[in-house]
């Protein structure tokens, strides 16, 4: 594990903790815990991909190829569906005036930071796996 790997791990840890902090601040600062419903989705978002996402083969099957599996596609769809829910729930709560606009902004910022964390992790893990071939 080189210096670059350590920096990536530290960056990911900082991004993740910042996202969780924004999530909690969105609830604490406005004394309303309804936005914490999104915290449940953060746990549920990767579950369909974990259960259905592994193709069992080399993992590089393209869409439409003969090795593509319907369960993998269903897992990706359910993951995307629940990821959209993590943005839609605060918006619906704000529209129904259950939470304030400030809490909505904090929740959307948390979703943005946590989504960026996943993208950075995916980028660096794909870069590391492609360097072995």
UniProtKB/TrEMBL annotation:
A Pfam family annotated for this UniProt entry: Vps55
Family: Belongs to the OB-RGRP/VPS55 family.
Record-level GO BP terms: late endosome to vacuole transport via multivesicular body sorting pathway
Keywords: Membrane, Transmembrane, Transmembrane helix
Main location: membrane
Membrane topology, record value: Multi-pass membrane protein
Record's protein name: Vacuolar protein sorting 55
InterPro entries: Vps55/LEPROT
């Amino acid at each position: 594990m080189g210096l670059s790997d350590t920096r990536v791990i530290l960056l990911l840890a900082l991004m993740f903790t910042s996202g969780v902090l924004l999530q909690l601040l969105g609830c604490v600062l406005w004394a309303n815990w309804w936005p914490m419903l999104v915290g449940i989705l953060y746990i549920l978002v990767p579950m369909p991909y974990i259960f259905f996402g592994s193709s069992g083969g080399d993992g590089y099957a393209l869409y439409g190829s003969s090795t593509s599996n319907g369960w993998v596609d269903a897992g990706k769809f359910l993951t995307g569906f629940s990821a959209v829910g993590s943005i839609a729930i605060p918006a619906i709560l704000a529209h129904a005036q259950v939470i304030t606009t400030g809490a909505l902004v904090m929740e959307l910022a948390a979703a943005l930071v946590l989504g960026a964390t996943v993208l950075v992790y995916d980028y660096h893990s794909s870069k590391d796996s492609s360097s072995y071939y």
